[in-house]
């Protein structure tokens, strides 16, 4: 049986070079369909896997949002790309502190990977809540308010890359090297792109067409049904030049053209694109906020102290995990990860995130 790299190679031989966007899409579809990428035995670790407090605080944050919405008797809890289901499991456990909120929740997970669906079923098997799985947003119910959480979801959607060449933008592509075996980057024909600044020769721009399309569908659904989405990811405020495409394999960075379909491919999220789509749909925009500051305002340090007192033998591990989530030097998640919320609630301050009035995102 041919390897996935050989399948990509045959595709290029047959049809010519493929765009970076298509390469990412094909690789990620194969990657997530064939493995559990999380944890020490996988390629990366997410915040819910680091500490239970992360999911607990997200659950209680949404309980407050539910209250601001007028405490509807039925509300959809939706997680996009829920990994092993750990965040939702922790959020549901914490939601029991607000019994009416817990009772109102109807749980829906949007997941395409059969491997991860099985993991989610195992994680949530003891939950009192029925869980419904979906391939896409389109099959979600549309007859109730909706609460959406997306933790490290948009960074795994493919992007288009463009490079200036001879004063024109040309789409970056992937073809075969001279050995007719390994992959290399190249350029397609020129395309017209409108940017406010004139770039220098060789400058690279990423355009997240897939993320914009997904955010459009999400925003229209929020506007129609009412609700709030909380987006947590690593990225930057406004469009900027530069290549952020990266690959992780067994917790180490590797060449993005090696181990096709075996390594996790991601790019940094440009939150301005997502915020602009939401604002255009008539939603209010809150953020950006650093993850560390957001979690501190929600009481992560107080919760850590409570857990440490209840389990003193685990206190060091509890505090180390929390430090990893909130520390704000450039190498820690508290600084790298940003928080953006979009909501049908207008002129309402959401816990831990200021409303954005000027239309230009800044990190606070």
Would you write up a description of this structure?
The protein has 364 residues and is α/β, with parallel strands linked by helices. The chain has 2 domains: 32-155 and 209-240 and 256-343, Rossmann fold, CATH 3.40.50.150; 160-207, no CATH class. Helices cover 37% and strands 24% of the residues. It is built from 13 helices and 16 strands. It has helices at 4-15, 20-33, 47-50, 52-68, 86-95, 99-104, 114-123, 209-225, 271-280, 291-298, 300-310, 315-326, 333-336; strands spanning 18-19, 75-80, 105-110, 131-134, 146-151, 160-165, 168-176, 183-191, 204-207, 227-236, 246-249, 252-254, 264-266, 269-270, 284-290, 337-343. Strands 2, 3, 4, 5, 10, 14, 15 and 16 form an 8-stranded mixed sheet that branches. Strands 1, 6, 7, 8 and 9 form a 5-stranded antiparallel sheet that branches. Strands 12-11-13 form a 3-stranded antiparallel sheet. The longest helix has 17 residues, at 52-68. The protein is globular. The termini are far apart.
Which tags fit this structure?
364 residues, alpha/beta, Rossmann fold, eight-stranded mixed sheet, five-stranded antiparallel sheet, 13 helices, 16 strands, 37% helix, globular, transferase, SAM-dependent_MTases_sf, SAM-dependent methyltransferase, EC 2.1.1.-
Write the layout of secondary structure elements.
Layout: H1 4-15, E1 18-19, H2 20-33, H3 47-50, H4 52-68, E2 75-80, H5 86-95, H6 99-104, E3 105-110, H7 114-123, E4 131-134, E5 146-151, E6 160-165, E7 168-176, E8 183-191, E9 204-207, H8 209-225, E10 227-236, E11 246-249, E12 252-254, E13 264-266, E14 269-270, H9 271-280, E15 284-290, H10 291-298, H11 300-310, H12 315-326, H13 333-336, E16 337-343
Parallel strand pairs: 2-3, 2-5, 3-4, 5-10, 10-14
Antiparallel strand pairs: 1-7, 6-7, 6-9, 7-8, 10-16, 11-12, 11-13, 15-16
Helix pairs in contact: 4-5, 8-9, 11-12
């Amino acid at each position: 049986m041919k390897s996935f790299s050989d399948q990509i190679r045959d595709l290029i031989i047959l049809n010519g070079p493929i765009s970076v966007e298509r390469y990412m899409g094909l690789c990620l579809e194969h990657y997530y369909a064939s493995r559990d990428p999380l944890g020490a035995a996988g390629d990366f670790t997410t915040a819910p896997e680091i500490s239970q407090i992360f999911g607990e605080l997200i659950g209680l944050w949404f309980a407050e949002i539910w209250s601001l919405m007028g405490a509807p008797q039925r509300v959809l809890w939706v997680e996009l790309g829920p990994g092993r289901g750990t965040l939702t499991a922790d959020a549901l456990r914490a939601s029991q502190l607000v019994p009416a909120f817990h009772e109102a929740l109807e749980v829906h997970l949007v997941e395409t990977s059969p491997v991860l669906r099985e993991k989610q079923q195992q994680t949530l098997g003891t939950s009192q809540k029925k869980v419904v799985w979906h391939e896409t947003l389109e099959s979600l119910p549309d007859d109730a308010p909706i609460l959406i959480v997306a933790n490290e979801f948009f960074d795994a959607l493919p992007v288009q890359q463009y490079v200036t060449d001879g004063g024109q933008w040309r789409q970056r592509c992937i073809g075969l090297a001279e050995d007719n075996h390994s992959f290399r980057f190249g350029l397609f024909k020129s395309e017209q792109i409108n940017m406010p600044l004139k770039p220098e020769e060789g400058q690279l721009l990423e355009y997240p067409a897939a993320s914009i399309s997904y955010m459009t569908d999400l925003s229209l659904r929020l506007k129609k049904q009412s609700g709030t989405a909380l987006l947590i990811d690593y990225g930057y405020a406004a469009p900027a030049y530069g290549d952020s495409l990266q690959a992780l394999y067994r917790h180490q960075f590797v060449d993005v053209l090696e181990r096709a379909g075996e390594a996790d491919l991601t790019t940094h999220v440009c939150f301005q694109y997502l915020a602009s789509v939401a604002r255009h749909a008539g939603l209010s925009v809150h953020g950006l906020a650093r993850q560390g500051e957001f979690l501190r305002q929600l009481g992560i340090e107080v919760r850590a102290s409570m857990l440490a007192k209840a389990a003193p033998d685990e206190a060091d591990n509890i505090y180390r995990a929390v430090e990893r989530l909130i520390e704000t030097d450039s190498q820690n998640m508290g600084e790298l990860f940003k928080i953006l919320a979009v909501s049908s609630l207008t002129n309402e301050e959401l816990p831990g995130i200021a409303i954005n009035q000027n239309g230009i995102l800044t990190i606070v």
